Each structure stands twice: as C-alpha cells, then as structure tokens.
Amino acid sequence: MPGPDLVRLRLALTAFFALDGFVFSGWVVRIPAVKEQTGASASTLGLALLGVSAGAVVTMTLTGRLCRRYGSHLVTVVCAVLLCLSVGLPPLTHSALSLGAVLLLFGAAYGGINVAFNSAAVDLVAALGRPVMPSFHAAFSLGGMVGAGLGALVAGSLSPTRHLWGLAVVGLLVTAVAGRALMRCEPLTPADGRRSEQGAPRRLDRRTRALVFVFGLIALCTAYGEGALADWGALHLEQDLGASPGAAAVGYACFALAMTVGRLTGTTLLERLGRTRTVLAGGSTAAAGMLLGALAPSLWAALLGYAVTGIGLANLFPVAVERAGALAGAAGVATASTLGYGGMLLGPPAIGFMADWFSLPLALTSVAALAAVATLIGFATRRVHAD
Predict the structure, then answer these.
(1) What is the pTM of this model?
(2) 194 or 283: which carries more pLDDT confidence?
(3) Torsions phi, psi of 201, nearest 5?
(4) CA 112 distance to own-chain centroid
(5) Is the pLDDT of residue 192 over 50?
(6) Of 131, 171, 310, nearest to 228 (Cα)?
(7) For residues 178 and 12, is the Cβ–Cβ distance under 8 A?
(8) pLDDT at 329
(9) CA distance 207 to 192
C-alpha cells in the first residue's frame, strides 16, 4: 500500500490534471462565440489559434530546465495561476490579431503546466509500481467533461466574458487548495537505473532517443484528434449540422465523457491486454469513430462518432508517455509530452486551413487518418517492450 505522502501527492496531481481540462474545455466551447465576436474567417481563426501552439512550444522547451532548477511542483503551481488568469482574456479581444496575442500567453501557461505535472506524475508512477498514468489523464478528461457541460448550460445565458472569468475564479481557488498540498510533498527522485551514480541523468544512446521520438509520434497523432475536436468539434455541429450553441457544446462533452470512461478503466485494460493491444484496439476504434463523427449527416450520429473517437483515443497518449518514460525517464516523458501537446495545439490551425481549402467535415477526417498512423506505429514497435 502506498504511504500517506504518495497518496497526498497523487491527489494533488490529480486535482491539477482535472483543473487543466476544466479550464481548457471552458475556453474551447466558447470558440464559436469568440469567432463571431472577432469576425474571423476559418483560416484567420486558425492563425489566431496558432498563438496557443507557439506559446506552448516555446514554454515546453524551457519547462524541463525550470523543473530541474525549481522543482516540478512549484512550476506546476505557477503555471496553474497563469493559466487561470489568461483564460479570461480571449473574450476581451475584438480582432484576430489581438486574439492571437492573448492566446500566446494562454498557450505558454498551458504548455508549461502539462510538462510539469506529467514529469511529476511519471516519477510517482515509478514509485507506485503500477501503470496508473491513465488515471491522471482521466482526471484531465473529467475536468474537460465538466467544463464543457457547464459551457453547454450557460452558453445561452452568460456572455463569454462572464463565463470565462468565472472559470478563472474557480480555477484560482482550486489552485490555492491543491497547490498548498502539492508544495508540502517532496519531489520524487527516480531511482530506477536511469541516473548515474552521481545522480545525473544518464546519456541516452541513439536507438533509445529514436524510440522515444517514435512514441512521441504516437502521442502527436492521437493528441491531434483531441485538439481538433476541442477547437473545431462544436463549430462543425453548429455550422454544418445546424445544431444550437448549447447542443454543439454537448458534442465536446460527449467526447470528454467517453475519454474519461476509457481512462478510468485504462489501468485495468493495460494490465489485462498489455500496451500493444491497447494501442491497436484504441487506434482503430478512434479512426472508425472519427469517420462517423466527421461525415455523419445527422447530429445524433455525429455525437455517437465523437463518443466512439473518445473511447478509442483515451489511453493512447498515456501509453505513449509511459513507454517513453520507461525508456528514458523524465526526459523521455518531456519529449513525448512536447510532441503530443504539439500535435494537440498545431492540429487546430491545420484543420482551419483544410476547412477553407476543402470543407470542415473533410478536414476532420484527418483525425481518423492520424489515428490509423498511430495504430501502425504501435504495431511496428510491438517488440520494444514485452506486454
């Protein structure tokens, strides 16, 4: 049984994963309203959303160093405060340029907190000795479901400004409570052979670095789908299928709920099926579900497709991060997380351009294509670890 310190640390990290999903989904369900407010086209909105990507990528490259110097716990708390404050800024903008500028700050906070708490989580997983990484990502999905569901309830009655600043206040209160608990826990030091006798991280050989990169590609392919549905899923239902703003917000809630269910059962699934079969089943399921979600002619069929996609994608990202961590420790987790969240954040702008060139439904089928690529990569790397 884990000691009380490990239990406290796990609860605190779980709270921050949930907070991250809650705040992020609160923003994404109001994207259609912010798009209308700024008068942006699909392509200019895609460029504005690139601000999230740029801010996140720059921060992710620095967060590892900050964690080594100040500790992943402190970095998590600081980034959580910045995330909560910056989520209220987008509805205050009235042009695509100003929207992109504030999303740069939002993306920096989002990227930083994800690298920081994933680094802390992988050390905790090693200390516990069980594949519990999906449970942390289940908390992210649960937070996303709650945030999206709340957005669906208030979309017709609250302005985006009041809604998102309300989320900021709630987020700061959660940060105050969970941050205090997290800062009381000593950061864990891996003692699994990935460090030298002097305590410094071991240098990785070329094959190991290549495998970490490959697992990062799995994370990228699958997180691309999560980012695409977060930023464009509601707009597709509203614009192409005639759904009301509230019903469109339900689409992301269905996706988030399905991911939550899949990740809550992820540890059991991994223990029974192993990582390779989990990746193969999940990738193929996500590909089929997204084809239905993008091309279905009715709202209810599209919602079903979103849910099936969520079930399929649920455990692919946690498995990719876990495999990278097993090979290279926290450095591997940082690499896989950076590639993965890069896919989540760079995907939406790509969807925007494809939507202008072709159509939004056709652009969303790229999610199915990348899920299939992740499945093929999982099959090709099936012998790296015995399942």
Answers:
(1) 0.79
(2) 283
(3) -60, 140
(4) 12
(5) no
(6) 310
(7) yes
(8) 67
(9) 19
